[in-house]
Design a protein that fits this description.
The chain is of the alpha/beta class. The chain has one domain: Alpha-Beta Complex (Spore Coat Polysaccharide Biosynthesis Protein SpsA, Chain A), CATH 3.90.550.10. It has 11 helices and 12 strands. It has a 7-stranded mixed beta sheet with strand order 3-2-1-4-9-6-10, with helices on both faces. A 5-stranded mixed beta sheet has the order 5-11-7-8-12.
């Protein structure tokens, strides 16, 4: 392992040209310097690869094989290549606070028992305006973990060895993070910082084809992991609630009130329309 690389940051990319510059720039602007940045292009057919290659920084590693393999495959690829002690998740349409990596690195160094740490996020729209704040929590029992995604995926930083041990399930793309949290729940130590460290981009409208696909994947995920619950009634309750939720979102999307549902995910304590880039 290269002793100068303490952290590996991985960004899987697919047709992300609109926001990709900002995402990469936020990584290169980190106050923590000793990292490598692995960019894996998943067969983009826009200008994503051209944007990636426009950056000239020795810490950047570009993987582009022209194939479309899905996010789970690309994340596992990054983890296999990672030289850092810790692995950092990042999405191509979000961007980091300048001290994100430093804060999480220091926390993990000071708490060697912790495998994975995440944070709240500030939610932004396509114009980079803050529209809310989103928090999460770590449940005490796995039953609650089946009902609530423990981490906001692109906020996590953890031991690379932990990621290598558990890995992402390639067939469960779309819920690959949720699946990872519940599979590893009984064998891991999770933590959350109490301050936002990432600007998390969320569309103002629901893309129902994507939403339906993820609900199908969610139901497949909880069925695959049903042995962890050992409770058939609760299992079928979760599946039933998933269908109900899918119906509600379909109804809201049809009548163009889905934005109201999306707003419920976020805290109202953040002033809306606060400029980020001024």
């Amino acid at each position: 392992m290269d002793q100068n690389v303490k952290v590996t940051i991985g960004i899987p990319i697919y047709n992300a040209e609109r926001f990709l510059n900002l995402a990469i720039e936020s990584v290169l602007a980190q106050t923590f310097y000793d990292f490598e940045l692995i960019l894996t292009d998943d067969g983009s057919n826009d200008n994503s690869l051209k944007i990636i290659k426009s950056f000239n920084d020795p810490r950047i590693i570009v993987i582009a094989d022209g194939e479309n393999m899905g996010i789970s495959y690309r994340l596992n690829e990054q983890i296999d290549l990672a030289k850092g002690k810790y692995f950092v998740r990042m999405d191509a349409d979000d961007f980091m606070f300048p001290n994100r990596v430093l804060k999480q690195y220091q926390f993990l160094e000071d708490h060697s028992e912790v495998d994975l740490v995440g944070s709240p996020v500030l939610v932004i729209d396509d114009e980079n305006l803050v529209i809310g704040k989103r928090d999460t929590f770590i449940p005490q029992k796995i039953k609650k973990a089946f009902r609530h995604s423990i981490f906001i995926h692109p906020t996590v930083m953890g031991k690379t060895a932990w990621f290598k041990k558990f890995g992402y399930s390639v067939p469960l793309k779309g819920v690959e993070d949720f699946d990872l949290w519940i599979r590893s729940f009984n064998h891991s130590e999770f933590a959350l910082l109490d301050i936002p460290l990432l600007y998390y981009r969320e569309p103002l409208r629901i893309k129902m084809s994507t939403y339906r696909f993820r609900q199908v994947q969610y139901r497949r995920c909880i069925w695959n992991n049903r042995a962890l619950l050992n409770n058939k009634f609760f299992l079928f309750k979760l599946i039933f609630l998933s269908y109900i939720k899918e119906f509600i979102y379909s109804f809201a999307s049809f009548f163009k009130i889905d934005y109201q549902l999306l707003k419920l995910r976020n805290s109202k304590s953040i002033v809306e329309n606060k400029g980020l880039l001024t």
